[in-house]
Write a structure and sequence with these properties.
single chain, about 325 residues, 18 strands
């Protein structure tokens, strides 16, 4: 089977098409800049798979499509401390029950696998129909099923070959590029894929302002309610140390800041939101804490400083569909 490999600066999620096609020589692999590779078979409108690469973000993604143009598999791979191999960090497979089922339909059965560098992991099977619910287990995988050797540029295999029923390795041909585009993604439309980036600090002050609407990426409508006073902190030394609350490892971020001796109040920010409870099969409204603030002054902060630290999994952020 002959498979055409075409390069582009981005992939348009809405159009399901490459944005700004480029030649293989113009792909920005050595520079670590984002690009995509689209694998197409003759006579098939939808791509076999789309590979999304951004070495500067330690990321390689793989999206597999069926004949109806629906995404059936999403693989998120991360380049960690060892530059020669990739961790199969996250994957989700959709198992459509028929050709009429819409892409990402809530009724579609799916299996999600989360893997971590230390060997831990979680496999979640979301079932539909009678019984429904989710079934969570710890995946038993070999080391070569968790990790993938990093191929050289231009030597990537078609990772979805087995999904598409290909027995023999395909022969690759380079796609023709009608007109080369100048590198750069500054004017890419909002519908284009962008590499995942580390989460950035949000509007912290707004978390303590009742009535403000915020989101955590999962619940689109969350309303800030009145902060709750949870206690006071006595600071007789004039020095405040801040570090991670759940670890004592030596390479975690920490800062120390001078503070006038005295007592300071601790406030807890809270939000109220509604969500569909799977176990009750009903809409539920709840209030949950989001942050704790040590109030050292009534004057709002002008800037925030974030200590740098070595991250275990670079580039983590919400995944876009």
């Amino acid at each position: 089977m002959v498979v055409e490999a075409g390069y582009a600066q981005a992939w348009d999620l809405e159009a399901r098409a490459p944005w700004r096609p480029i030649s293989a020589g113009e792909a920005r692999d050595a520079a670590g800049l984002p690009y995509v590779v689209v694998y197409q078979a003759a006579g098939r409108e939808a791509p076999l798979e789309v590979r999304l690469v951004s070495w500067r973000d330690h990321y390689v993604g793989l999206w597999v499509y069926d004949a109806q143009g629906r995404r059936t598999y999403d693989l998120d791979m991360r380049l960690l401390d060892d530059p020669s191999r990739l961790l199969r960090r996250y994957s989700v497979g959709w198992y459509y029950t028929g050709p009429e089922m819409a892409e990402f339909d809530k009724a579609c059965p799916r299996i999600t696998v989360d893997l971590f560098p230390d060997g831990r992991g979680r496999r979640t099977e979301e079932r539909q129909g009678q019984g429904g619910g989710s079934y969570v287990t710890s995946p038993s995988l070999r080391d070569d099923e968790r990790w993938m050797d990093r191929p050289a540029f231009g030597e990537w295999p078609l990772l979805s070959a087995q999904v598409h029923g290909l027995i023999e390795p395909p022969a690759f041909e380079a796609a023709e590029v009608a007109e080369a585009a100048e590198p750069g993604d500054g004017d890419a439309p909002a519908t284009c894929w962008r590499p995942p980036r580390p989460a950035q600090p949000g509007p912290i002050n707004e978390l303590f302002r009742p009535g403000v609407c915020v989101t955590d990426g999962y619940h689109p409508e969350m309303t800030v309610v009145e902060p709750r006073r949870v206690g006071t902190l006595c600071g007789p030394s004039g020095l405040l140390a801040v570090s991670g609350p759940d670890t004592d490892e030596g390479d975690r971020p920490r800062i120390t800041v001078p503070l006038a001796p005295g007592e300071y109040v601790l406030d807890e920010a809270r939000v109220r939101f509604s969500y569909h409870c799977e176990w009750r099969d009903a809409e539920v409204t709840t209030t949950e804490p989001t942050a704790v603030r040590l109030l050292v002054s009534e004057t709002p902060a002008a800037t925030w400083r974030w200590p740098s630290a070595r991250t275990t999994i670079p580039g983590c952020s919400s995944r876009s569909r």
